[in-house]
Write a structure and sequence with these properties.
Blueprint: H1 2-11, E1 32-37, H2 41-51, E2 56-62, H3 66-74, E3 78-80, H4 83-87, E4 94-97, H5 105-113, E5 117-120, H6 128-141, E6 145-147, H7 155-165, E7 172-177, E8 184-185, H8 199-203, H9 213-216, E9 236-237, H10 248-258, E10 268-271, E11 301-304, E12 310-313, E13 322-326, E14 329-334, E15 337-341, H11 344-350, H12 363-373, H13 381-400, E16 404-407, E17 412-413, H14 416-419
Parallel strand pairs: 1-2, 1-4, 2-3, 4-5, 5-6, 7-12, 8-9
Antiparallel strand pairs: 7-13, 10-11, 10-16, 11-12, 13-14, 14-15, 16-17
Helix pairs in contact: 5-6, 6-13, 7-10, 10-13
Length: 434
């Protein structure tokens, strides 16, 4: 992977450019001083991780809900209700962004402009255009930006994707993934806003709508709507791309990686809007039958790459991975595991070692090491942008409902209707550069 990073570095024209290191001492005891932007459910995992991460130290937290900041203040951290105040602190070297999806891009861009390195949770963006702006900000400011696609640092995923990418499965004819549902519009009734929560700011670039607990929480603590579909902002437009960008950001990222498309993407996209329900296989994060009669939310999506490989988002592959059909057989990947058919391919992939799930999270350590070395990380911002773009392409294909051609260089469709979804107007003062 280091060779891949060096090659990508040179291709990006950055190898000869001096990277600007953070403060030479990295704070107390030579540790990288880290601030958190957003300290909800996912951030807690990273807080615990940093407590045992040599060379890094959590020191500050920003959140629009002051009640979430109380325990951090008690730990002696600096706390802020405005993330820009955290970014203005020169003692902070890097930030971890664990906000809802519609709040990923602007803090990332602001952090890069403030000279901070960034770890931003997946999915990286709400729109395709946001991703390009984030890449530009990272490159302009020579920042290390790691996307939270942790399967890029999990050994079974690393070796199985490399096996496919190196051509050892033969030419890949087709790939199948889970059928990730698209988001739907929120129709939750109004509830009182919790004391202290800045709900208008939480809505950010979106048009403000009434508060509801099952919108505010990412997965609503497992609650489901009347149809058995999961609640939470992850399920709703305009805050997220649904599970297409939720779990799809993991699975479609693995497919991009295995196909060697980290700097590109598909060129033809179409959704089978008339597919019978018998061809719309279920998705695990919901009750059985929750997506029956799902209509446009679950229409199978197909994408063709320039080399002829076709990706089918049709439910015939695992969530968090995909089933690759090559000349020598099949390899099915998922989080931390893979299976091979015929079975003897597994020994080739593992080198004879045991193939078992891996729980160790080295993804944060990779970010730490790259902050010091200034090498691009294993889930660099360009990689995150390209993988998330595939997710967005899937949603757009369903929203438009007709075959589309996509130019991965210009990042444009052959359709004005589809291009209208590449970016979106952001509410002031939460907008992005033109």
């Amino acid at each position: 992977m280091s060779m891949t990073r060096r090659s990508f570095l040179a291709a990006a024209g950055l190898a000869a450019a001096p990277m600007i290191l953070p403060r030479s001492a990295f704070g107390a005891n030579d540790r990288i001083q880290v601030g958190f932007i957003g300290v909800g459910r996912r951030a807690q995992d990273h807080v615990r991780l940093l407590e045992n991460m040599p060379g890094m130290q959590g020191v500050a937290a920003a959140d629009l809900n002051p009640k979430r900041l109380t325990k951090f203040k008690e730990k002696g951290w600096k706390v802020y209700t405005e993330y820009r105040d955290l970014l203005a602190d020169p003692s902070i070297d890097a930030v971890i962004i664990c906000t809802p999806d519609h709040w990923h891009a602007l803090p990332s861009i602001d952090a890069c402009n403030a000279g901070k390195d960034v770890y931003v949770e997946k999915p990286m963006t709400l729109t395709i255009r946001e991703g390009r702006l984030m890449v530009e900000a990272a490159r302009k400011n020579k920042r290390i930006v790691q996307v939270g696609s942790q399967q890029r640092s999990t050994a079974p995923n690393v070796i199985s994707c490399k096996f496919i990418r190196d051509g050892k499965l033969g030419a890949i004819k087709e790939v199948h993934s889970a059928n990730y549902p698209s988001p739907w519009d929120c129709d939750l009734p109004e509830q009182p806003v919790p004391e202290g929560l800045n709900w208008d700011a939480w809505c950010g670039q979106t048009t403000p709508r009434p508060y509801h607990t099952d919108l505010y929480l990412p997965r609503a603590e497992g609650r489901l709507d009347a149809k058995g579909r999961p609640l939470g902002w992850i399920s709703y437009r305009p805050y997220s791309g649904g599970e297409m960008t939720g779990w799809g950001a993991h699975g479609l990222d693995m497919i991009q990686w295995a196909l060697g498309m980290d700097n590109s993407g598909p060129v033809d996209i179409w959704a089978d809007m008339d597919a019978p329900e018998s061809e719309r296989f279920g998705f695990s994060i919901a009750k059985d039958g929750a997506w029956a009669n799902g209509g446009a939310l679950t229409a199978p999506v197909h994408m063709r790459y320039a080399n002829g490989t076709v990706l089918h988002i049709d439910g015939r592959g695992n969530a968090g991975g995909g089933t690759f059909v090559g000349e020598r057989g099949k390899v099915s990947t998922k989080r931390g595991e893979f299976e091979a058919d015929p079975p003897e391919l597994e020994k080739e992939i593992t080198g004879g070692k045991e193939n078992k799930p891996e729980s160790a999270d080295t993804h944060m350590a990779n970010w730490r090491d790259c902050i010091r070395s200034r090498e691009l990380s294993v889930a660099d911002v360009e990689i995150g942008h390209r993988s998330c773009t595939v997710c967005h392409l899937g949603n757009i294909a369903r929203w438009v409902g007709k075959p589309l051609k996509w130019d991965p260089v210009a990042e444009k469709f052959d359709s004005d209707e589809a291009n209208a979804y590449v970016s979106r107007e952001a509410r002031k003062p939460y907008g992005f550069p033109a």
